[in-house]
């Protein structure tokens, strides 16, 4: 539609500055002649597009021209920007379209609002692979979210391993949603820590700014923390016979990697590290007929017992 193309043209100039007609044509996937007609139409409609001639010339918007085409509030923009995850866009087959839409959204926002929204969005990450365990209801998500997005310190009451909850003041780095759970990544006494929101018993946002280092890579930090956690929680090794096409899925949920033992046509025998018996049984069960637990015996018995309960329920 031409209206959508005109909007895209304005947003491109707003976001990138001066562009040649040929560059605009490539971006909009139209002819240079069409771009020239669109620029003329925008000028007639009162949009201050002007041409600069010469080898380095092109089209640009008058300095100071701003757009507020989205009508989004700060919170709405953050909600959209934090949905950039591969879990949503790529799962729906909309990766390129989603990226283009986000670029238009960012370009359309006023400078100050754009900076605040993108900074807040960089503090939230959504990923498929989590740690170990079933999803649980989160506690105090509003207070934690406010502190993370506003860049304030956070006071939380949180239990240590084998000990009752105690108060601690942390500097939030970001929020991560993984496998149905939310995690707070933060600094405590200068060391990075991971806190599960479902285990926070009380939370209080403080007025003082958080000591958040510049250039925090939330993705890299999460992957490192997850790898460290999984490596320290390998309580069971199991041998499985799986379809080769499911290997990547098993690798993603294992705690200590996958070692190939033998190829049997389309099947593969592997050794896998799991957190515990419950974790192993849940993974094997999710693979259904594409996996068989060869050992240890207690894993085979857990799968057999679960299948028997299902049969009994539907008898």
Give the distance, in angstroms, between the N- and C-terminal Cα atoms: 58 Å
Rounded average pLDDT = 77
Query: What characteristic shape results from the CA principal axes?
Result: flat
Q: Please, how many helices? A: 11
Structural class: alpha+beta
Protein name: Helix-turn-helix transcriptional regulator
Domain HTH deoR-type: 2-57
Pfam family, one: HTH_11
Keywords: Transcription, Transcription regulation
Descriptive key words:
315 residues; alpha+beta; 6-stranded mixed β-sheet; 4-stranded antiparallel β-sheet; 11 helices; 41% helix; 27% strand; flat; transcription; transcription regulation
Structure in words:
- Keywords: Transcription, Transcription regulation.
- InterPro entries: CBASS_pafABC_assoc_protein, DeoR_HTH, HTH_11, PafC-like, WCX_dom, WH-like_DNA-bd_sf, WH_DNA-bd_sf, WYL_dom.
- Residues 2-57 form the HTH deoR-type domain.
- Helices cover 41% and strands 27% of the residues.
- With 315 residues, the chain is an alpha+beta fold.
- Strand 5 and strand 6 (181-188) form a beta hairpin.
- Helix 1 crosses helix 5, helix 4 packs across helix 6 and helix 10 (277-287) crosses helix 11 (297-313).
- It is flat.
- Residues 84-95 and 130-135 have low confidence and may be disordered.
